[in-house]
Amino acid sequence: MPEIMLKTDNVIMKFGGLTAVSELNIEIKKNEIVGLIGPNGAGKTTAFNVITGMYYPTSGKVLYKNTDITGFKPHSITELGIARTFQNIRLFKELTVLENVLVGCHIGINSGIFSATLHTPAYRKREKEAHEFAMTLLKEVGLESAAYEKATSLPYGKQRRLEIVRALATRPSMLLLDEPAAGMNPQESLELMELIRRLRSEFDLTIFLIEHHMQVVMGVCDHMYVLDYGVTIAHGDPASIQKNPKVIEAYLGVD
Amino acid sequence: MKLTKHQTYTLIALAVFGVFAFLADSFFDAFTLRVFNLCAIYIVLSLSLNLLNGFTGLFSLGHAGFMAVGAYVCALLTMPPELKEMNFFLAPMVPFLKGITLPFLPSIIIGGLAAAFVGFIIGAPVLRLRDDYLAIATLAFSEIIRVLITNAQTITNGAQGLKGLPRFSTTFVVWTAAGLVTLFMFLLMRSSYGRAMKAVRDDELAAEAMGIDVFKVKVTSFTVSSFIAGIGGALLGHMITTIDPKMFTFLLTFNILLIVVLGGTGSISGSVIASIVITILMEVLRFLDEPMNLIVIQTNGLPGLRMVVFSIMLMIVVIFRQRGLMGGKEFSWDMVSAFWSKIKTRKGGRHA
To answer: Are B191 and A92 inside 8 Å of each other by CB?
Structure first.
């Protein structure tokens, strides 16, 4: 039986009187691609923010590789091996494509401000390795020719891919993608899903992704969770989800 | 190691400047020399503010406070006991400080460290704030520092200030300091730590998701910036040879901020160039404050007219070149040749 990577134990997130996520129980096994779907405002991003430490849940626990990470700072969670992307692209605007990826390598370089400023041999070696790693990653998604361009000068689809690559630069074992296909046409979305599948096998990743178009993720996910108004209304493999009357109701509405 | 054409240019330019600075002592008169050295001190100060405002995205207005700490600590350490006796005529100085006299180098470093320490203590609570709130809080703390200095009669001699400091800020000292700080900034910004700072500036949430400890980066940047500001303050004190609390008001922070904004936030070379240009202009435009005879209009001296001119300049820059002179980029020889060919084609165009 494969190892359980991520588990949420009855996570509840309330904002004042509004319950954004109620009793979320997710279990993700190693090397799975798991989808979190649901209509707009269902609490998908809130769930992500709780897992990555951006929010502290009202109650419940988040377990990563069987350790309780509830209340950890976002940067420590990234250090533990959970990387994420954002729904609205959040690249470092003034930096080049390569520099964006190198920022992700910062924890890997792991040297103090003085050794970094003095460019000590040890630091230089690590910086060089980071450079090579960043270039390999960029090649992986076909962005190596744009390495020295400003990140914001890239077209939208490439910016999305850059965000994924930047997350990979932190050398995660788990990747959380928040609507990676937002704003893409069906063809682009399919290509992206292909890329995600490829990255999983190449980097030995476990992937948890949010999407609100069910069709896009049907093909790629091993397992799915459906949220509606913060409540998990269904979970299972894609085929059973597609047939589930509750899901159809949430998406299409029933009179 | 083989040098590229541009590296050779840079080395030549630096060598020429080095010789120039070395000879400056002998061919400049006292006033010109002072302006020349003031340029170097402003380079130190503007770079330290740019580290915060331009590179880490922290809008701080408390620089004068850290300069004051550096200047006072350094001055109290370098002053010989007799001089201290002479200065403290209203109330005697605390005996523990009276006996200490150190050479300039350790004093200025201790001055910088003291400023860094104060920066660290203030930074920890203040850096939880953002944008305008941070600006107001740092401004308030810098005023608090000033008030404390004014009232600590037995330590700082209060409002009387300290007079007759030894003139340690020679041309060599100030320009070496300016060179070292510039070099430090270039190296820092080319390192992974510099990248982390810029990442924090561009998007805090994303930086945090990349595993960067945002708060630690901010506090580090604030502390380092305070250290450099303290060094700059100490240099300034030992050049003017007199310091008093009124020197370190908001106006001083404003002058530095003006340089940073005009030179371009997030550009090291921009700050260096603007420091030199603005410092010289401040002196050249001094005639504006004096009585003027413009044939038609006669003024009897309008103190502050100079600052009006600078404010107008700032407005023009904000309207036409939002990102300042260098616009966040660094100086490069390609820029010079591009500029040159632009002028050439313009001239050529006129002939045709």
So the answer is: no
Best interface-test mutation with A: which of B186, B188, B189, B191 has the largest number of A CBs within 10 A? B191
Q: Which domain holds residue B35?
A: 5-351
pLDDT, residue B352, reads 41
**Residues of chain A neighbouring B195 (CB-CB closer than 8 A):** 95, 99, 102-103, 106
User: Per the CB < 8 Å rule, is B192 touching A105?
Assistant: yes
ipTM of the complex: 0.89
For B109-127, how does the pLDDT look when each residue is reduced to its tens digit (9 = 90+)? 999 999 999 999 999 899 9
CATH: 3.40.50.300, 1.10.150.20, 3.40.50.720, 1.10.10.10. Which one for A1-81+172-255?
3.40.50.300
Q: Whole-angstrom Cα distance, residue B221 to residue A79?
A: 22
Tell which residue, A108, A140, A143, A114, has the closest CA to residue A127.
A108
Q: Say which CATH topology domain A90-171 has.
A: Rossmann fold (3.40.50)
- With an 8 Å Cβ cutoff, are A103 and B188 in contact? no
How far is Cα B178 from Cα B47, in angstroms, rounded to an integer? 9
Domain count, chain B: 1
In whole angstroms, how far apart are CA B230 and each of A122, A186, B62? 31, 58, 12
- Identify the CA nearest to B229 among candidates B204, B186, B266, B260: B260
Distance from CA of B16 to the nearest CA of A (A): 26
Whole-model pTM? 0.89
Nearest to B208 among A74, A104, A130 (CB): A74
CB contact under 8 A, B328 and A104: no
Low-confidence ranges of chain A (pLDDT < 50): none
Mind telling me how many Å the CA of A173 is from chain B's nearest CA? 14
Tokens of B316: 């023009």
Joined tokens for residue A78: 């990234």
